[in-house]
Design brief:
Layout: H1 3-7, E1 23-27, E2 30-34, E3 37-38, E4 43-53, E5 56-68, H2 71-89
Antiparallel strand pairs: 1-2, 2-4, 3-4, 4-5
């Protein structure tokens, strides 16, 4: 690839990174998988909450504005927040 192609945006766009699952747990019939999003040295609090309803798998992606200095810290916070949301809203989060 030439210098000018790189400079003016030619070539292949960057592939978005899929967040890596750090922790998983079941809570009140829901499954939680924490997956902090790498944001250039910090990690955004993120998790996937799923539950099977009437034979269909439903999900809710939790993404918070909070960022942490480590993936483990973001994972721990995501797990706490996901459990809190499940306790407060139940199946309403899946609609």
């Amino acid at each position: 690839m030439s210098f000018f192609s790189k400079l003016f945006g030619g070539g292949k766009p960057a592939e978005p990174k899929t967040p890596k699952t750090i922790a998983e747990a079941d809570h009140n019939g829901f499954h939680i998988a924490t997956a902090p999003m790498d944001e250039g040295g910090q990690f955004r609090v993120s998790a996937l909450i799923t539950k099977e309803v009437d034979g269909e798998m439903k999900s809710h992606r939790l993404i918070r504005a909070d960022v942490c200095s480590s993936a483990q810290e973001a994972s721990d916070m995501a797990m706490r927040k996901a459990k809190q949301i499940i306790d407060e809203q139940g199946e309403r989060i899946l609609h």
